[in-house]
Structures are given as C-alpha cells and as structure tokens.
Amino acid sequence: MDTRTFILIAAFLSLLFAAPARPQSWTASLAPHPKAPPLFMAVDMARQRAFVVRNKDGELKKMKDMSCTTGMHGGGKLLEGDRKTPEGVYFLQGKATGGLDFDSFGNTAFPLNYPNPVDRIQGKTGNGIMIHGRGRSFGPRQTLGCVVLENDDVDTLDRHVRIHATPVVIAESVSLTGKAGPPPEIVLGTWGWIKARERRENAFFEIYDPARFEKSTGMSFARFRQKILQEFATSRWIDLRIEDLQVVQGPDYMVSVFAERTLPHGEQGWRRLYWMRQVELWKIVGEEWIPQNLGGSVDYAQLVGKEIRERLQECAQAWDKGDLKTLLRAYDRTGRRNDAQGREAVAASLERDMAAKKKNPYSAESMVRVTKHGVEAKLKADGHSRTILFLPGAFNTWLIVSDEAAKQP
C-alpha cells in the first residue's frame, strides 16, 4: 500500500468514527394504563398524520385523525436550522392567534416546549417549534421543523387539549396497541419526591441524577441543593396536593406530569418531572414548573379539619373492630405513640391497649389546628386528653407522627 492510499484510508476512518451517529428513529409503542393521560396528541411522521387520542376503558382510541406535514429533512431534530422535527414528549406552551403571517402560520399557532430538559441533556439546539396552520395547501414533509395541520383542525385544537397539561407525542411512527406501559417505579418515585419535599427530607436529593440535572438546567447541583434547603428552612413541612398525575413514555425517558397545589401557602401550577435510568434506578434528570391558576379557592383550616376528623373516625372504627393492621397504617413508619417509636413498637403498644380493653382513644371530640410542626388534633373525654400530630403521607393522605396521652397530675 502506497503512502497516499494509506493517508486516504486513515482520513476516511477518522471521519467515520469521529462523525456523530445519526439518531435512530423512535417508534412510540403506546399502551393504555391507569396513569396514561386521559387525552393526548400523537404525531406519526411516517404517515404524516396527527391524532387526538383518548385513554378510556382500557383502550387508546383516536378521537380525531388529521393530515399533517412535518420537517422536510425528517425527524430526530438535533441542531438549529436542520429542518427536522423533534421526536419525544412535548407540551403546548400557549396559543397565539394574533400577528401571525397567515400564509405561513394560518390563524393559530401552539408553541411546544422544545428543547425539553432531556433534549438539553443530549445537546439538542433550536427553538420555535410549533403546531400551527397554513394559509395554503401542503404536501408531505414541507416544514422547517414544525408540525402543520389544516387550519380548521388547528383552530379548534384547544377544544380537545389543555395548555401545559396535554402531552404531544411526536415519533417516526406511532402504535396505540403497545403491551407495556411505563414502569411502576415512575409513579412510586413521583410520590416519593412529593413526600420527601413535604417532610423536608434529605432523601429528596437522592431521587435526582446530579450530572444530568446540571445539563438540563444549566445550574450546578450544589446550587440547586442550597436553594431547596433554603426553601425547607422557611417551614418544617408543606402539604402538596396533587391532581391528574399522568406518566408519558418518551424515547429512553419518562415524564410524570401533575397539577400541584402547595398548601397552606397557595402556590399552584403544573409540574413535570423527567426521568432517565441511572444503571438500574430511575432518577429525575430535569423538571419544569409552570405557575398557573388551577381554579377554586381553598379554606385550608376547614379542609384539613374535615380530613383529620375523617382520619380519626377511620382509626376509631378500626379500634372497635380490633383491626390492628388498618390502625397501624394510619401511623408513619417512624411515628411515636407515648414512649413507643417505630412501626413495631407502635404496633405492640396498640395491641396491649386493645387487649386490655382500654377505651377507644380516637372517638373523643377533637379540636384541630394547623401548627408549624404539622396538623394537631387534641382529643378530650372523661378528663383524659390526647394530642395527635399528623403530617402529609403518600397519595394525599395524613399519617400520625406523634400520639401522646397527657400525663396525669
């Protein structure tokens, strides 16, 4: 082999191995499951079709089937100006109806949250990706990266979807008959995130992947930790009320999205947590918070008073039935009852008192108030009193963290 040939081969190999690999197109195989969004959009770029899909009665059904056109250079957007449509899970960020060039955008445009946190981790660039109309007819793959629908379809899209809440799944191909839904760890991990934040626990930080989180946010994890610890220091606990928890499957990542109310402080909006695998565990790699008035006013003291009295009634009924298992579920795993602390010690304490036929300690009239330590219930009957302290538990419940009888003089 002469020198010139060797140099050409070496140059070719160096280019071959140095060039970034073209991303493999994503086939979204979506399955009905209890935590799938009740309604979402899907864009199938291979067929140049867009759907509004309903998750109901164990099936994913197309409510609306629309023609669309996407990026002229295909999908899997990587760089600004590459004329590709992104693949992944996105959300409508708003609705624009004024100041649009009708020929290019029609009457209505819905911006998407591209790049999302996972896109930023993967170094993807660009912006301005929207779902919009067009003032002229279109054929397949004619856009600079946006998803274009017929004007009549896009003008009425928000009759079917909710801004910030409804996912838009964009893939090379979309199947609505997948067999496997998202792993259960995502729902459990989301509730773990909620509980740790409510209780101001250091376990909160263990749910994150620090390296990827830094890439998705542009903030050092040390700075993020400091910011959260400052938040924790302002109050010992909060009550996060979660509604509409959904889990959506993306290419190599998951998104859990939910409506969040922070009580008693009153903050409310939509939260999105982005999850990726770190070895065998799912970790949060990015998040989005969109403040929004979710509607409805809450008298927190009245709400909590009702909920705590209902919880005490459940405990009273379990005591009368001798149902130790149900009663024990009302206590936090690290809870305390008189001098007993921890699940086993509390169980033994309850069992002794139930065996001794002591009077039901949960049936007395209660006075409930919100304190800096938690929600406190004082129960008095026959000259005896108990103070029971509750903190929020998983799945919007209340757990007993302290249950003490007043010492007799």
From TrEMBL:
Active site, per annotation: 132 (proton donor/acceptor), 146 (nucleophile)
GO biological process terms held by the UniProt record: cell wall organization; peptidoglycan biosynthetic process; regulation of cell shape
Pathway as given in its UniProt record: Cell wall biogenesis; peptidoglycan biosynthesis
Location of the L,D-TPase catalytic domain: 39-171
Gene3D superfamilies: L,D-transpeptidase catalytic domain-like
Keywords assigned: Cell shape, Cell wall biogenesis/degradation, Peptidoglycan synthesis, Signal, Transferase
Tagged with keyword Methyltransferase: no
PROSITE patterns, alphabetized: LD_TPASE (PS52029)
Signal peptide interval: 1-23
SUPFAM superfamilies the UniProt entry points to: L,D-transpeptidase catalytic domain-like (SSF141523)
Gene Ontology terms, MF aspect: carboxypeptidase activity; transferase activity
The keyword Transferase is assigned to this record: yes
Assigned protein family: Belongs to the YkuD family.
Designated name of the protein: ErfK/YbiS/YcfS/YnhG family protein
Native source species: Desulfomicrobium baculatum (strain DSM 4028 / VKM B-1378 / X)
